[in-house]
Amino acid sequence: MDKVEEILKNLNEGIEKLSNKEFSIYFFVIDTETTPVASVSYIYEQVKILTEAGYNAKILHEKNSYKDKQLPFIKNWLGEEYSNLPHSSIEDKSVNVNATDFIVIPELFANVMEQTVKLPAKRVVLCQSYDYITETLQAGKSWLDYNITNCITTTEQQKEHIKGIFGNKLKVDIVPVSVDDTFKKPTKPKNPIISILTRDQRDTVKIFKTFYLKYPHLKWVTFRDMRGMTKNVFAKALEESCVSVWVDDIAGFGTFPLESMKSGNVVIGKIPNLLNGWMDDKNGIWVDNTNIIPDLLAKFIQSWLEDSTPEEIYQNMEETVEKFTVENQVEKAKEVYGRIIEERIEEFKSTLDKYKNNNVEEKVD
Amino acid sequence: MRADVSVILPIIKLGEEEKNLFANAITGVSTQKVLPKKVILVIPKNEEIKKELESYDYPENIKEDILIVENENETDFCSQVNLGVENVETEWLSILEIDDVYSNIWFDNFVKYSKAYDEVDTFLPIVLDVDVNNQFIHFTNEPVWARDFSEKLGFLDNDALLNFPNFQLSGSIIKKESFVGVGKLKPSIKMFFNYEFLLRMTYYDKKIMTIPKIGYKKVNMREGSLFWGYKNNESDKIDILEQKFWFNTSKKECYFKADRGIKYELESV
Lengths: 365, 269
Hints:
The complex is a heterodimer of chains A (365) and B (269).
Chain A: H1 3-19, E1 24-28, H2 38-52, E2 56-61, H3 66-77, H4 80-83, E3 87-89, E4 102-106, H5 110-115, E5 122-127, E6 150-153, H6 156-166, E7 171-174, E8 193-198, H7 201-214, E9 222-225, H8 231-240, E10 243-247, H9 255-262, E11 266-270, E12 285-287, H10 293-305, H11 311-321, H12 326-364
Parallel strand pairs in A: 1-2, 1-4, 2-3, 4-5, 5-6, 6-7, 8-9, 8-10, 10-11, 11-12
Helix pairs in contact in A: 1-12, 7-10, 9-11
Chain B: E1 2-10, H1 16-30, E2 35-44, H2 47-54, E3 66-71, H3 77-86, E4 92-95, E5 101-102, H4 106-116, E6 122-130, E7 136-140, E8 155-156, H5 158-163, E9 173-175, H6 176-181, H7 193-203, E10 208-219, H8 226-232, H9 240-253
Parallel strand pairs in B: 1-2, 1-4, 2-3, 6-10
Antiparallel strand pairs in B: 4-9, 5-10, 6-7, 6-9, 8-10
Helix pairs in contact in B: 7-9
């Protein structure tokens, strides 16, 4: 068999494999060292969705030690259905990536994009945090320079932002975040507890200290820092509290406020630098200045103690969060990954055609 | 729907000022989102007061629920309340002082919380304490929601109460069975009868929870009120030594269900 025939055979086999879902989709994840990180939970969710859809999706981690420490943590944090998903380690060198495979790389890891440039697999950037796009990217370099032409993000606003940076050659699709039924309204009345999550922990400290100083008659109201909890404990804590405070300037989506809304909590939050598309002036108390959060919080607590919070805000919260169902995420994920796979098949077919044509021309010559 | 609660409103005298206060207190009951089943007015044996209250223009929605009970014996606050309790036919009761007022959400919240916490014997409101000019002074009953104040967040227990005695019983909603079961209020205990009662409730393992809602507004130190009298009335005045005596006595007497007729003795302080 000459070289061209071999290429043709491989391309045909590749098309068949792609059509029959006989390939792998690797999702690169960072080892969070047993710290819950929303972006990692989103990646696990994608792998779960694709696995359930019949794809061979896998978590790809760097070190073998991930399985010893991080995996038990994943089990505890997200549950067994996530820790039992297929995992592969780069370190043990057992990963054999083919041209039919896909590697999904988070936006932060420009170094991984560079290191994997010679691999035959199709690579896709998963961009959840627009703020990290240029973090490790070399000056003057683009994802396109690493032969990456597909990106998946979570909101229309991030999509526009990404296109604004990389131009229209980069195809950007959206797979939204979902808020699953772990988050629900409580069966018992809520408690005077404030759930607080800020990207910079100094903001948490500033807010609660200012609140207690300015409103000593509310010193008995407890703040609960929502960091480092397992998903179930986190959801339970949201159920018990009556209000959430959120400060995250660089948030790409804002899962915490939506989880809070689904748990029946009004959210007092700082408007992030990039709008996320779901915030409006009726579904929360959104401010552009962190300094006024303690004052708004005191006003809210007072109205909550008097049952005088407008019912309208709770209705708007429900309407907002209804849009982020698991079903919607599953549907979009299937559609987007399905399309990327179709495009890969077309690439194979197009290459196949080129080889066939070249081959015919050579014989004629 | 009505809350299965009888409001007990003890009335000692009914001058012009008390009439205004009474009107406010009654309005506070009639404007509830969820109404109580009964309002029991406990009055001394006094034809004038009786006549006044019988002919009072009660709001339509509670008109049929008013019961006037005459006390022919002692008419101190505790005795009035205890007599009111004897006339309670609902599962729960609530004490309303004439110079105070319920917030309109109180019984609605009681219904919600009593469904969610069926183990509770007494639901305390967060009390909005104001001065005679209606200026906010502080909240009362709220500390149970502070982290580590008591064993269980939101609940008052004996240890917490021994460390921090400032809780109020007025406005709270108490299971009649529990109120009677621990021996009712003790008229012999001066000034700290509420404290002694709450200590007794917790000592006998009755569950007390503060509903984290402002359910009751209390006017502090109104001229002529019971506690104003303890400070200012020559006949009722209680000095610091006697206050200490009653405070310490409350801690000792809470083990006994019956009122043992304690009398103030200086030497025992």
